[in-house]
Description:
Keywords: Membrane, Transmembrane, Transmembrane helix. This protein is an all-alpha fold.
Amino acid sequence: MSPTSTAARLEPGFASAFAALCLGAVAMGISPIFVRFASADMGGVPADVGPFASAFWRVSLCLPLLYAWMRIEERHAPADAPRIRFSRASILGGIVFAGDLFFWHLAILKTTVANATFFATMAPLFVVLTVWLVLRQRVARSTFLGLALCLLGGAALIGQSLQADPTRIEGDLYGIATAFFFGMYFLAASRARKTAGAARVTFEAGLITSAILLVIAVLFDTRVIPQTGQGIAALLAMSYVSHAGGQGLLAVALGRLPATFSSLVIFLEAIAAALFGWAVLGEELTLIQALGGALILFGIWVARPKPAAQADAPFERRGTAA
């Protein structure tokens, strides 16, 4: 088996793919603001929809837009461009993304938001370890170093709010499950992009995720249909900005960038969430949090793909062909 390294060649499309990835991370980073307005009690007023229902609407409302994007993308694609419908990878992507949103909302219900967010940021760890230990592919030393720096930065961003409480261990475990499923989504979407365009992968995965989350919302939420203008507006914004924009741009980037590096860039979501929380909700930003954000940026820079001639020595699983 020929090894795959995160020290990939820098192709002309790298800059645009990296920009799409950064914009996608920012779009996903604003989602907690929309969730707050759609499914959190505000000033004694009951939440408009339940947490699982908000996850369902997040994915389903933008499906018409994603379908239109898919048709336009494929109409302008070369005749020989791969476009396998509902590949096993895209189906798996829809299933694991439903798992990601399901466990994320369980974590929020069972532990503090800070704890849930901290454990959810471990998704890149699962991506890197799966690529290295399970898929037996080479991973550059710079990727491991960048991962360590990003994890430290993520801990600094929310570490002051972390609470060690034995009664919240269940919710903390749900947070770790969130990270695992989101990591698996990265790998599934990256694989699906080899046989289909970004729009098709995002639409097909979203269709499957929506079906699963609808069942979950009906079973576990008492409020599924939004009742207020604020709730509807928040759900529409979350769907079109955070899902169509965030997941769509992520799929675009995964067609050109390694999944290991892309997962690290998603740490920008934590920075974006902190900045939006400060700008929109008036949440305090401390010097330690600012340093954590800087550490994340430095970790991403360290792990960036390099030209093959300049790539550092990779970690390699024993038994992998050279």
